[in-house]
Amino acid sequence: MKGHSTEAAVIKALKEKHGDCDYISGEDLAAQSSISRAAIWKHVKSLRQKGYEIEATPRRGYRLLSSPDALLAEELFPLLATTTFGRTIVYKDTIDSTNRYAKELAEKGAEEGTVVIANEQRRGKGRLDRRWVSPPGGIWLSIILRPAIPLQEASKFTLLAAVAAARAIETAGLNPEIKWPNDILIGGKKVCGILLEISAQSDRIDYLVIGLGINANNDLDTIPIDSREHATTLAAALGKKIDRRSLVATLLLELENRSKTLLAGGWQEILDEWMKRCRMFGRHIILRMLHGEVEGEFVGVDQSGAIRIQLPGGEIKSFAAGDVSVKKQRLT
Ligand code: BT5
């Protein structure tokens, strides 16, 4: 990752001069990163391949003309206020699935906080082997965590991620709501989905991969028609393109902060934040599970994050997994 951090430093220095339309000499860049001028030239060539337009003029040095609209590590590092989350970023223009790749990296020992981001996924994964459509322009991101908590508490990270994503989306001036367990909606339409994958040995968590898919600046038309009517993007909700870089930086900070809160025993605080953003209370819902379905009134979630439903007979039951449809009319 050394190359990444040098390139991030080079971009940072070029950007500082960018406002004044000024050049920075190869000598100064080399001195700042403690490497040779030839090495700087190599990094400049690699940055150009990533989409940066960098002018090189003899005697004057280098000048940044434009940056790519991509979630590159070089673009994200200057915005990140985290200590561990996103300190290693693997960016892929196209990938099968960021969750799949993050799991591969985790198996090889990747550190907590390692993030995989793609501009496009060819085989984005939803829950239960469903497809997650991931055209260019969205935010398709997975993060590796290694929390020291018992396995049965791992699902708390789905709710934690939903709170973090909702908060990040709020900073963009939008008003998202959370639908149990893992959907973020705007105006009743899905803008973000979360997929938590767990690797554990007996009761010990080896690693978690939290995958977040956020429809940001991607074209809605590329989402298949049956999903499209239930989907929206941040750009559609805002009426203009969103700066994906600052959204990702905010998201990673929110994830890190909430994760610290959880590990410090602050689960109730996260649950309260989750409930505040959930507008399902009192609604008549149907919960579809692998084997059968139940209907009733949504009355909240329990301490483990399982959904609590009041059945028509009055009994309240908890269910750990399933898909919820909210019915239009309230139960009488
Ligand atoms: C989810 O599954 O909502 C979890 C999605 C997680 C995607 C992220 S992207 C980064 C990381 N890498 C991956 O490979 N995955 C994660 P679920 O609740 O099962 O919802 C899937 C359903 O949402 C599909 O069956 C469609 O109906 C619908 N859908 C598919 N693509 C969509 C999109 N882009 N926007 C809105 N809805 C979509």
Automatic annotation (TrEMBL):
Name the record gives this protein: Bifunctional ligase/repressor BirA
Keywords recorded for this protein, A-Z: ATP-binding, Biotin, DNA-binding, Ligase, Nucleotide-binding, Repressor, Transcription, Transcription regulation
Domain BPL/LPL catalytic: 74-263
Catalysed reaction equations from the record: biotin + L-lysyl-[protein] + ATP = N(6)-biotinyl-L-lysyl-[protein] + AMP + diphosphate + H(+)
Family as reported in the entry's similarity comment: Belongs to the biotin--protein ligase family.
Pfam assignment, any one: HTH_11
GO molecular-function terms, A-Z: ATP binding; biotin--[biotin carboxyl-carrier protein] ligase activity; DNA binding
InterPro entries named in the record: aa-tRNA-synth_II/BPL/LPL, Bifunct_BirA, Biotin_CoA_COase_ligase, BPL_C, BPL_LPL_catalytic, HTH_11, Transcriptional_repressor_C, WH-like_DNA-bd_sf
Organism: Candidatus Aquicultor secundus
GO biological process, alphabetically ordered: regulation of DNA-templated transcription
DNA-binding region, residue range(s): 26-45
Residues at which biotin binds: S97, T98, N99, Q121, K190
Job description of the protein: Acts both as a biotin--[acetyl-CoA-carboxylase] ligase and a repressor.
Domain of life: Bacteria
E.C. number(s) listed in UniProt: 6.3.4.15
Record PROSITE patterns: BPL_LPL_CATALYTIC
GO CC terms: cytoplasm
Enzyme class: ligase
